[in-house]
Amino acid sequence: MFFSSAVVTSRVLFPLCLVALTAMQAEPTQLSSSSVRDRVRAYELSCVATLQAITVANGPYWGGDPAKGYASSLRELGPRGAGILDSVAASGKKDGYHFRLLPERTTHNQAIRHYTIEAWPIKRLVKNQRSFFTDETGVIRFTTENRTAKNTDPLLDVPSPRNDASNFSSPSSVFRA
């Protein structure tokens, strides 16, 4: 009896799982506009968290040693480098965004004292999907234009967890311009 019940259940559930997986992998044009907006919001939240993780990882990498400086690439921070950043972020692609760490130009043996990080959508899902920019200060900037963000773009209002951690769970409060 159990076996036949399990077979019937699997015959019913398997097709439902396939439908769910197909819907999750569907192109944005096949999804409702609210689910696309939700996906974009989730990608943007993940992007901001990844920018913060990269900035935080560069601190221990440098370690206060002026002769060492900051990392020159995301790979230097990743598992095959210092092991401070996860392999997905170190690859330069995560949750719908490209990430690029750009060290300041120095002569061959000089330490890197400044860097910027750019993040832009792998594929724009909506017209105003944001690109982001940060540097060693941790200040994040954004643009809704179809380009990478830069240091003159508006600041992203990211609440400090020390001041009001409850705001971080609300996507609308995280992305005030």
Structure description:
The protein has 177 residues and is an alpha+beta fold. The protein has one domain (34-174): Fructose-1,6-Bisphosphatase, Chain A, domain 1 (2-Layer Sandwich). It is built from 6 helices and 5 strands, in the order H-H-H-H-E-E-E-E-E-H-H. A hairpin with a 2-residue loop joins strand 1 (93-94) and strand 2. The longest helix is centred in the N-terminal third of the chain and has 30 residues, at 33-62. It is elongated. It starts with a helix and ends with a helix. The model is unreliable at 1-29 and 162-177 (pLDDT under 50).
Helical content stands at: 40-55%
Write down the CATH topology.
Fructose-1,6-Bisphosphatase, Chain A, domain 1
* CATH class membership: Alpha Beta
Helix count? 6
At CATH's second level, what is the architecture? 2-Layer Sandwich
Shape: elongated
Structural class: alpha+beta
- End-to-end separation: 61 Å
Radius of gyration from the alpha-carbon trace, in angstroms: 21 Å
Low-confidence stretches: 1-29, 162-177
Strand/helix succession: HHHHEEEEEHH
Question: Which sheet architecture does the biggest sheet show?
Answer: 5 strands, antiparallel
Spatial sequence of strands, sheet with the most strands: 1-2-3-4-5
How many domain modules?
1
Number of strands: 5
- Strand fraction equals 5-15%
- Report the average pLDDT across residues: 78
